[in-house]
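Thread: "does anyone have the structure for this chain?"

Original post by V.I.:
We have the sequence but no experimental structure in hand. Need at least a predicted one for the grant figures.
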Amino acid sequence: MNHGPFLFLGLFAAFAWSWFSLVLKPQKEIGTLEPDKNAVTGEVYPLNRNGAAQQGRDVYRANGCASCHTQQVRSRETGSDTERGWGIRPTVSRDFLFDQPAMPGLFRIGPDLANVGDRQRDPKWHFSHLYNPRIISQGSSMPPYPYLFEKRKAGGLPVPDAVQTGTYGPGDGYEIVPTDDARALVAYLMSLRANNYIFEMPDPNPPTNAPAGATNNAPAGATNAAPAPATNALTK
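Reply from O.Q.:
Generated one for you, tokens below.
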């Protein structure tokens, strides 16, 4: 008996099922996602990043930051990320809606950065941390990034975002000034603010003064409002 046709049909079914499960189904569930609008506060999330933060995303990627830092807050069942203050809820696909490519990361040699822009809102903190992490945290395993900064002879008015170097300073008469890449990277780091409850992860304690019948979030895809430029910024 010739089993060739049955073998062909079996292989065809296996490939067809794999294509459906790995390509078509995820595209249907994730590929059509849109920003979510909170029915109570009216906030739209996520917002697209502004030009500086988008440029900073490329700097973040080029320097391999995703090799040591994740951007995915884990659920309570798989970790204690929320207790660490790394985010108010687990990360979901919608968080990466405007990220091309998404950089959730694989390893946590350093802390998770999904919500670092909300944890550390002072750009000067980020500049000092990037120039030399030991300024902020003694014994840090993070490498310094001095090539993202310039050593200049101080004179006249000080540069507003000059690095607060502490004992790691360049010496009297000089100051450390961020380059455009450093400013863009910090803009990206400060834009990482996954601090909104959304449809997939609603607020477990919604406001008691919410309108009758209103849920914490509108249904997924219920808004097609154009994303406004984000004004938040990044760190490592």
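V.I.: this helps a lot. The two ends are 65 Å apart (CA to CA).
O.Q.: and Helices lie at 4-30, 51-62, 81-84, 116-119, 123-131, 180-190.
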